Amino acid sequence: MNLILISSKIIYKNNEEYFFKTDNRQTSHLKNILNVTLNQIIKVGVINKGKGEGKVIEESKSYYIIKLLTPIHLEEKSDDNVLPIDVVLCIPRPKVLNKLLQQLSSLGVKKIIIVFSDFSNKCYESSKILKNEEIKLALQLGLEQAMCTRFPEIYIHYSFSSFFMNIEKYTDEHTLKICAHTNVKKKNMESIEYSILNMEKGKILLMLGCERGFSELELYLIKKLNFHFFNLTERILKCETALLIIIGQLLLLTENISLKKKWNQNETILTT
Predict the structure, then answer these.
(1) Pick the CATH number of 85-261 from 3.10.20.30, 3.40.50.2300, 3.40.1280.10, 1.10.443.10
(2) Potential cystine with 157: which of 162, 168, 174, 198 (Cβ 3.0-4.6 Å)?
(3) CB contact set of 228 (below 8 Å; sequence gap of 6+)
(4) CATH number of the domain at 4-68, please?
């Protein structure tokens, strides 16, 4: 926990100054990990708002009282940068999903769309990880690690057909839609790299299947939605490993200015 992340609802005002009381998890971390003392300055953030510092002004066995040094909860919105990548995730095992939510939150993914595909285990529908408080905790852990405050938007579709019919919520004419799939030739990635390096605006919608992949019907529907299929390696990777590798490569293509400049220079030479 590199940042104490709180809701603006728990902040109270006293004599023109702002304070909050830590919860059990935050108190345990401050006491047992950071070993904070009275008057110590700590990093504080407000969900979907600003970041700043707070001062420990009171200590007890069960909580700390922290005074905000600046009114960060009054800032209109978070200044965190978000990735130009949204993720469609066919639901994996609950423990894996919990880790992925934390990791995607840390990375700055703006939208996470969870889909129950044909090969998803239907008993996951009753898993506690899909409860609002569990999702919020997983996302918050990721944000606290990254020292960010902007919560990703979470959408859940309990069937693939529901996602198919609502695809317009997640895309526009500038969205590049790509789908990781093991049963395609690796060279398909070259055309995707070309498209990304030539993107002037828009975002990427990345889809990843569950451990068992996609059914034939789902592959047909994904093609109908104009997704580009690609395969990074012949090795069969775990869902969480594959997702982080893919996002890392996409970031290299979207965020590396020198790579884009080099590509554009080569394009100019080839076309003149």
Answers:
(1) 3.40.1280.10
(2) 162
(3) 176, 177, 178, 179, 188, 191, 192, 195
(4) 2.40.240
Alpha helix stretches (DSSP H) within the chain:
24-28, 94-107, 132-146, 160-165, 188-197, 216-224, 239-255, 257-271
* Non-local CB neighbours of 255 within 8 Å, separated by 6+ positions: none
Per-residue pLDDT of the chain (272 residues; tens, 9 = 90+): 899 999 999 999 999 999 999 999 999 999 999 999 999 999 999 999 999 999 999 999 999 999 999 999 998 887 777 778 899 999 989 999 999 999 999 999 999 999 999 888 888 888 999 999 999 999 999 999 999 999 999 999 999 999 999 999 999 888 989 898 876 655 555 566 666 666 666 788 999 988 788 899 999 999 999 998 887 777 777 888 888 888 888 887 776 655 444 445 454 333 33
Structure tokens at 219: 């592959």
Contacts with 139 (C-beta within 8 Å, 6 or more apart), sequence order:
101, 102, 105, 151, 152, 154
Give kind and range of the element (H or E) at residue 229: strand 228-230
Question: CA distances (Å), 2 to each of 39, 104, 233, 268, in order?
Answer: 18, 17, 35, 45
pTM comes to 0.85
Instruction: Give the start-to-end residue ranges of the domains of the chain.
Output: 4-68, 85-261
